Amino acid sequence: MRPRVEEVRIQGLGVIDEAVLELSPGFNVVTGETGAGKTMVVTGLGLLFGGRADPSRVRPGADRASVEGTLVIEPGGRVAQQVEDIGGEVEDGELIISRTVSAEGRSRAWLGGRTVPVGTLTYLADDLVAVHGQMDQQRLLQPARQRAALDRYAGNELVKPLRAYSQAYKRHKQVTAQLDELTTRARERAQEADQLRFGLEEVEKVDPKPGEDAELRGEEERLSHADALRSAATTAHTALLGDPMEAAGSPQDVASLLGEARSAVEAVRDFDTELAGVADRLAEAGYLISDVATDLAAYAESVEADPARLAAVQERRSVLTSLIRKYAQDSAGVLAWAQQSAARLAELEGDDERIGDLTREHEELTARVTELAARLTKVREAAAERFGQAVTEELTALAMPHARVIVQLSQSAEFGPEGRDEVEVRMAAHPAAPPLPLNKGASGGELSRVMLAIEVVFAGADPVPTFVFDEVDAGVGGKAAVEIGRRLARLARTAQVIVVTHLPQVAAFADQHLVVEKASDGSVVRSGVVTLNHEGRVRELSRMLAGLEDSELGRAHAEELLGLAAADR
Known about the structure:
Keywords: ATP-binding, Coiled coil, DNA damage, DNA repair, Nucleotide-binding. Residues 348-382 form a coiled coil. Pfam families: SMC_N. InterPro entries: DNA_recomb/repair_RecN, P-loop_NTPase, RecF/RecN/SMC_N. The protein is an alpha/beta fold. It has 19 helices and 15 strands. The chain has a six-stranded antiparallel sheet with strand order 2-1-4-5-6-7. A six-stranded mixed sheet has the order 8-12-13-3-14-15, sandwiched between helices. Helix 5 runs antiparallel to helix 13. The longest helix is centred in the middle third of the chain and has 47 residues, at 351-397. The two termini are 22 Å apart.
């Protein structure tokens, strides 16, 4: 399903007080008397899709002008995904876009219910609409757009070589970047290698072991407080078992006091089971105290003040601390850094070999990319020739028989993602005129017709689903006007087309005909935009032909035009 504009609501814009346009998927035409506000429809659509906000367009007496559009889009499609990515909502395949312009010139935009920068609407419009008005002929004037459109026009003939080129170009770009890094940063990489070597030599010299810093810290604590530790163990041992140098039987130590308590309870344990349990626990306590005292004695015996070992531990800790401060959080981290740095150093030391390999690959890829780019150029040149001839033929039928359109290809200095071709569509207004860029070689009305010819030729190749034309028929009449209508109808077979026109020959080809009528005060109100039935179309075409809705001659001519358009479909 192709996206399309379903409804447009305009308020406070130019002569339009309030208007609602309900649009069909095919060819929509908007007509009305001079000054009725037809062009404001195109202006409103331009605002809706990010066009420049002109406060002078705000209706006198109104605070602001506003435009709201309802678009039918494919749920889950490219446009829906873009809207959801910025936080907007698409409900049941419908997208709401709004734009306001205050009388002071402030502009605000909403997309899917979310406030967005106006530039977001402009970005989204690239996939939705092409507006061709007297002051808004920008889309196909962009070189990148022209090249993309030419590539689509070239079709399948370009697909395979472009895919091959894109793959080669991507690898060429990667290899170029790697070579640039290796060669332009040679000094920095050499300095990095020197720093890594120094660090690795330092680590190798110290030779740290995992957890060694924690072990040395504990050993230093013990050696630094050896006398205090031994004294504490001895004092605790004496408190538990007593001092063997004192008189025997002194009940001041814990073991003696426990022994007295146990003896007292053992003497009467047979008289009460509860007290017997206490006696057992006192016996266990005695055994425990004896074991603890033994451990204290052994510990006191093992602790020795060793100034030489303490100095060695402190020196080793100092060396390790210096190393850790430079490279990691602990000795295990230093070893991990050394492992990673050794791998990085091996990579840096292999740069010369890598540069040689990459240089050879770069030369091969450059030749490959050059060959494929030349193939792309050849295909594009053939497509450009066909395209220029096709557009020139269209212009002949659009009352520009002397105009000639060519597509000029030039080569950029550098390779790009799409090759080296720069594409520019040019037009010569008459045989003696030099081909000029479209925005310089055609007047406003001519440019609209050129754009129409281009869009007709590109129909089916250009993915934009909605085209808007204003005054595409400027300065045209008679047979040429019929041809314009026929070509717009042809374009509407593959896209939605919205045209503001004053020519009945163009309006007759429309699938849906909207007429803009002023109210008695000169403004356009909601009821002033009417979708015409067949009888209404006959009256409006008669007015456009003869200036009188009920002219018999005008009505007959109108019926003839409608019949011609219907037969052409």
